[in-house]
Specification:
Number of domains: 2
Number of helices: 18
CATH superfamily of the largest domain: NAD(P)-binding Rossmann-like Domain
CATH class of the largest domain: Alpha Beta
Radius of gyration: 26 Å
Length: 506
């Protein structure tokens, strides 16, 4: 193993593997917190531990005879696990382009490593069985560091795969149980964080679902019965649709608000909503209700003022988007359709949304408040939001704006303390406001450093009951807390709900 070319390729493999693990697995895909990726995490854990053994062995030892054959067998096992991992990834999630490219480069480089290493192992295997301690200088040091790193992540992935058993999502059949039987529901934005769960709830409850998607995800393809469409023009005029849930839109917080990004944010919402209304116009039988997604950004930046559905808004980019979005949806009222404008807060879950972006730094003890920490965060558990959508569809008296937020908003400082407690980690590393504003501009000012204290008055007035009214019980459930923890944190939820409603009325 003394070839500098071989060690250079191994070093390149280590660097690309580290990039894949940190950028894709941890910060982009956040596999350790996705219940659906339990098997992938198990494969990663075993493979990483094999890597640790190989790096130590190749960095400090010459293995002869039967030992060399054993190490070669480990290489073969690693290749088999990698192939299994490729299959599992394709079946369970949609890989981003950068991850596919990285995997291709890793495979090519690994092939070159095996070509150079094969003659070495053949020579070692022909010798009498022995283990000889050796050193390749800095290459051996690099191998040791790499072995420690992959062993660490191997243990982490193994523990995360066990945690996934506690992260398994709650049964979906109750989410839409309030609807009359055998409804036909059109869902746009069907592969998004909220849309996927809406579809799961509808399918589990036995309803007929028509899903508008751009590119079907593997998990969406597995759900049945489900009709997938890539355009609303594929729906015939005589199709009977009972309700439409319009959730489509470019993610608002996944990139800087450049001029092009702002245009995509607006266009993605307005264009699909206009298409939905045009569909309603040509359908022979009109749907009973259109639930069209909006956001609490409609209210603008309001500090600590308590806000309900009757409150007015002040101008900012988020409000401009929501006003245009809601205006497009309201056109459906001219066709006799009940229109509900669902003004959603921060939706919490481990499969997407804002919380997933916070889990990795908080899990490693690097989390804390943003700016002053006094800005309000109006949040809602994802399953509660899906249940609220079902409640809206099933309640003919609801129309107009409905706040999709839990009844107990918290400040950013309170939220970060609760998240730290749920993860059993400190949450004291405050992110100063000025670097966030310098880098992200209006995105940071509107989404991170300012907030709204929004209360769900319409939901309460129409009899909707939140399962997670406090941030503590929500995080305990979402992050796989023990049943005892969840039960303990639920104590006082009813009191919090009552106090928030009374406070809103004062």
């Amino acid at each position: 193993m003394g070839s500098d070319l071989l060690w250079t390729l191994i070093a390149l493999q280590i660097l690309m593997g580290g990039f894949d693990t940190l950028y894709h697995h941890e910060f982009t895909e956040r596999l350790a917190w996705r219940a659906s990726q339990r098997r992938e995490l198990q494969l990663h854990a075993v493979r990483n531990l094999i890597y640790a053994v190989l790096f130590v062995t190749l960095g400090w030892l010459e293995v002869h005879g039967a030992v060399a054959i054993g190490v070669a067998a480990l290489l073969v096992i690693e290749i088999v696990i990698t192939l299994m991992d490729f299959v599992e990834e394709d079946l369970s999630r949609k890989l981003p382009a950068s991850e596919r490219i990285t995997h291709t480069l890793l495979a090519i480089n690994y092939g070159a490593i095996l070509m150079l290493a094969a003659p070495v192992f053949v020579g070692w295997a022909a010798l009498p069985t022995d283990v000889v301690v050796t050193s390749y200088g800095w290459w051996s040091v690099m191998a040791s560091v790499a072995a420690f790193g992959v062993a660490l992540f191997g243990v982490r992935d193994g523990l995360a795969s066990k945690r996934c058993l506690r992260l398994e999502m709650r049964p979906a059949d109750e989410l839409m149980s309030v609807l009359p039987p055998r409804q036909t529901v059109l869902v746009t934005g069907a592969t998004g964080f909220i849309g996927r769960r809406v579809i799961e709830g509808l399918v589990a409850a036995g309803h007929n679902v028509i899903a508008l998607v751009r590119t079907p995800n593997p998990d969406t393809l597995l759900m049945r019965p489900l009709t997938l469409l890539t355009g609303l023009d594929q729906i015939n005029d005589d199709v009977e649709i009972d309700a439409i849930v319009n959730l489509a839109g470019e993610p608002i917080a996944n990139g800087l608000w450049t001029k092009a990004k702002r245009a995509r944010i607006v266009a993605s919402r307005i264009n699909v909503t206009n298409d939905v209304v045009n569909l309603i116009d040509r359908l022979d039988a009109k749907p009973k209700v259109l639930v069209s997604s909006s956001a609490i950004g409609w209210y603008g930046l309001r500090g600590g003022e308590e806000i309900d559905e009757t409150s007015v808004g002040n101008d900012c980019f988020s409000r401009q988007v929501c006003v245009a979005w809601e205006g497009a949806a309201k056109r459906a009222e001219t066709f006799g359709v009940r229109v509900v404008l669902l003004r959603t807060g921060l939706v919490l879950g481990t499969e997407g949304g804002m919380l997933t972006q916070m889990l990795t730094p908080f899990e490693f003890g690097l989390g804390g408040p943003m700016g002053s920490g006094q800005q309000w965060m109006s949040w809602i558990d994802r399953d509660d939001l899906v249940r609220l959508i079902g409640h809206i569809v099933a309640t003919p008296d609801i129309s107009g704006p409905v706040n999709g937020t839990a009844p107990a908003p918290v400040t950013n400082a309170e939220f970060t303390r609760a998240l730290g407690r749920a993860l059993h980690r400190p949450a004291v590393l405050r992110a100063p406001a000025w670097p966030l504003e310098l880098v992200a501009g209006d995105l940071a000012r509107e989404l991170l450093l300012s907030g709204q204290k929004v209360l769900p008055d319409v939901a309460h007035a129409t009899g909707f009951r939140f399962r997670h009214a406090t941030i503590e019980t929500a995080l305990a459930s979402i992050l796989g807390g023990s049943p005892e923890d969840v039960t303990k944190k639920r104590v006082g939820d009813d009191l919090v709900v009552s106090e928030s409603v009374v406070s809103a009325r004062q």
